[in-house]
């Protein structure tokens, strides 16, 4: 109880610790928050804020928790207390705007957002951006953002226009994105970042060739500006034009990092000739035992499907921190050569290497498990992880890997046991909270329990795409389809992932919006036709799978 009391008091530093009427709900609210019970946390924090007279900090925290809980009624009540106790601030205006968006009071939201955008505080536009992002309904957000653009309310600085343009892209509103990008081009005609944003808008509209042409216009700046070079390469990569991305990265001065990026990009194309030429260029300059260069040559040899040469490069890495990494890669290359026993022996030697760091020895167990999985040796995979946990009890990486291994075998009970064991040692491990919550939502009917776990992850990382996807998915499983769609579309806007795309498609299909659903299924199939969530969704609805 002492630790919980400290947490509660830390959460509201201005609270009157002697006020019993405030302290009890405050502790209850913090306990509910730590347990992922956001509905209860919002209720208790409001009660604490009501009991603590004149405590603006506690009213603000109650408002933020109610917003996270999507509890509009308690958000309004907490916000009213906050406004009574403190002068209006940018943070308060942002909360007012977010609530107005959620309640459909769009003109109210517009006024508050315009006030933020006119604020003398240079962070004002960032508060406005955050407020829009919390609005939940993409159509409402796009409508209000369109008004702000028409009113000329967005500050005349490039970063602000860039971020509002990216928001429009995430909203999947092609017309709005075009309007913002057109204004960007008028205001900053020579800025290559504008060309990249316009390319994203054209790509969104399915006009990939025009997007590539727009990127080429910005290329002259790439040779002398590494930031522009990296930005253009990422834009080409988003178009899945990996060869063009590698070509841009070849501009200007080169070092091991740029060579590595070029090699990894070329490995994703069918252009083995260009990759081979890069390999030959680097190999000709590898007479001195530069460990980073030899590691890179080994990786390129692997990309070129020359595992025997890769082994040679890795064996030639001299002593030092790169030596153990080279040995790990040696095991992978040996496995590719079908010399599996030697590969496993290499991994085991590292497991027993006293001179190696603890993390490296632990990673050697993970490596052996991964190689066993690739070979279809399920029992041996689990054995490697069991041995790793015997050497490194309660290691979070090993427990997480074994939980995933159990989940792939449909042993949800064992997967859950490992994730809960992990959470005993690291109660706030966000990846484990999200993984367990998603597993329970996806593979069981324990939806409320799943929601609480995912909410604990959301408290820590409210804008993480994977967590937003899990949250949307559990809402779908709870039958809250419209709410689920909002969260899943938000996750898709943050990260174009095949599993998220499959989830959006499934919810749309169930809502009867089948043409739109098919678009998401097609996009997910393009990203990864073998994705498990996608295959399950297509099978569930009797839709054609890969290659059809």
TrEMBL record:
It comes from Pseudoxanthomonas broegbernensis. Residues 1-17 form the signal peptide. Keywords: Repeat, Signal, TPR repeat. Gene3D superfamilies: Tetratricopeptide repeat domain. The keyword Coiled coil does not apply. PANTHER family: LIPOPOLYSACCHARIDE ASSEMBLY PROTEIN B, TPR REPEAT-CONTAINING PROTEIN PA4667. It holds the Pfam family TPR_16. This is Tetratricopeptide repeat protein. TPR repeats lie at residues 498-531. SMART domains: TPR. InterPro entries: CellSynth/LPSAsmb/PSIAsmb, TPR-like_helical_dom_sf, TPR_rpt.
